[in-house]
Write a structure and sequence with these properties.
The complex is a heterodimer of chains A (119) and B (155). With 119 residues, chain A is of the alpha/beta class. In chain A, 48% of the residues lie in helices and 23% in strands. A 5-stranded mixed β-sheet of chain A has the order 1-2-4-6-7, with helices on both faces. In chain A, helix 1 runs parallel beside helix 2. The longest helix of chain A has 18 residues, at 22-39. With 155 residues, chain B is an alpha+beta fold. In chain B, 37% of the residues are buried. Chain B starts with a strand and ends with a helix. Chain B has a single domain, classed as Heat Shock Protein 90 (2-Layer Sandwich), CATH 3.30.565. Chain B has a 5-stranded antiparallel β-sheet with strand order 1-2-3-5-4, with helices on one face. Classes of the chains: A alpha/beta (119), B alpha+beta (155). The A-B interface holds A 19, 21-23, 25-26, 29, 53, 55-57, 59-61, 63-64, 67-68, 84, 88, 91-92, 94 and B 14-15, 17-18, 21, 36, 39, 42-43, 46-47, 50, 53-54, 102-106, 108-109, 111-112, 115. The complex binds adenosine-5'-triphosphate and magnesium ion.
């Protein structure tokens, strides 16, 4: 149930929880912010491949990281949402602000393209 | 006449968010809901319970009561807290309205409850608490409602 995260080529990849509610989102937020603050990382990919449930706390989690990353010229990309996660993301309008990709590899490509534009 | 009732009382702590929505989903299985209907109910209950924990009780704990009822093919759920209450319910229900400016809240909770359930009623008294009443018809009738919503006409 705990999410895994790892850093690859200066990008933090978060394997999001099976269920993202307020309880889970808080734990993820703390870990992600710790890595952002202590490793100076501001490029984050949320991979939702395992996620079956997400409520508004998940929207807040992504939004909050997006705002934080933006402060230092960073970026958030989200990938691999199933239909129910996709539905709440669309309803919240998050997809108008944040880059959405179908797979993790497309998200990584997107992040690399962004890095080479913004050295 | 198909009639069932249940009531649970839980502590307002974040660990109980998952418990509350799973209980609601288990209760509604009597009506043989679709996976989507089940997901709708889980999301709506999760939103209401989370609001009681973080807004009504400001993360300091308290008591949340959840009343569940099935009448024929209709599911009802009430989420009740005895926390700080809502000053302006109409304003609170507007999309993107939030009183927590931490940047971690999107102000979408009531919007999701409204979208995923057939009916949402919020009554609140400042200093006394809040009751969120929700209703959802399970089965063929709500499929027709979805059809109408999607295609605009009743066939
Ligand atoms: N049970 C409650 N007790 C007191 N205030 C509440 C309660 N539920 C909601 N509110 C108030 O209504 C506002 C809107 O609630 P809503 O769930 O729509 O958004 P949010 O909780 O602020 O953000 P999100 O749900 O997107 O994380 C809250 O910010 C809060 O001020
Ligand atoms: Mg809320």
């Amino acid at each position: 149930m705990n999410n895994n995260m790892y850093v690859k080529s200066n990008v933090l990849i978060v394997e999001a929880d099976v269920e993202i509610d307020h309880h889970r989102a808080e734990r993820t937020r703390k870990s992600v912010d710790f890595i952002m603050d202590n490793m100076g990382i501001d490029k984050i990919i949320f991979d939702f491949r395992e996620t079956q449930f997400m409520d508004s706390s998940g929207i807040g989690l992504i939004m909050g990281r997006y705002e934080k990353a933006k402060l230092t010229g960073g970026r958030v990309v989200i990938a691999n949402m199933n239909s129910s996660v996709d539905r709440v993301i669309k309803m919240s309008g998050l997809d108008n602000k944040i880059c959405v990709r179908n797979s993790l590899s497309e998200a990584i490509d997107e992040m690399n393209a962004y890095k080479s534009k913004n050295v | 006449m198909n009639n069932h009732k249940a009531e649970i009382v839980i502590n307002a702590v974040s660990e109980n968010e998952a418990f509350a929505r799973v209980v609601a989903a288990a209760f509604v299985t009597k009506l043989d809901p679709t996976i989507e209907e089940m997901a709708d109910i889980k999301t709506a209950v999760s939103e209401a319970v989370t609001n009681s924990i973080i807004h009504a009780y400001d993360n300091k704990g308290g008591i949340i009561k959840i009343e569940l009822e099935i009448k024929d093919d209709v599911f009802y759920v009430d989420v009740i807290d005895y926390g700080m209450g809502i000053e302006n319910v109409k304003k609170a229900m507007e999309p993107m309205f939030t009183t927590l400016d931490s940047g971690e809240r999107s102000g979408m909770g009531f919007v999701f409850m409204e979208a995923f359930m057939d009916e949402l009623n919020v009554s609140s008294i400042v200093g006394e608490g809040t009751r969120v009443h929700m209703k959802k018809r399970i089965g063929s009738v709500s499929d027709t409602a979805t059809e109408v919503a999607l295609h605009g006409t009743k066939r």
